[in-house]
Amino acid sequence: MIIEYKNYVMKQTSNNRFDLQEKITRTKKGTEENYEALNDLAYDVRLEYAIKLIVFEELRKREETVTLKEYLREFKKEKEELLNVINV
Question: Which of 9, 20, 69, 81 is least enclosed by beta carbons within 10 angstroms?
């Protein structure tokens, strides 16, 4: 089974685990043509851990300075948003 959320792809492996990848845009050298590729983030992880990694990646992309309390609040908010989308 393959699960997609935003620009992330979770591919099911054996024992109900997942490989987590992120869709990225790369540019071919010489032609400057853009193409989509997959960047490996984690191998053979449980679904719960893959969800945590997605939340961490989404927060990592933000370039701002925050307190630990604000970070934890944003982590919780981002995780709730993801869980609402998949209705778990």
Answer: 69
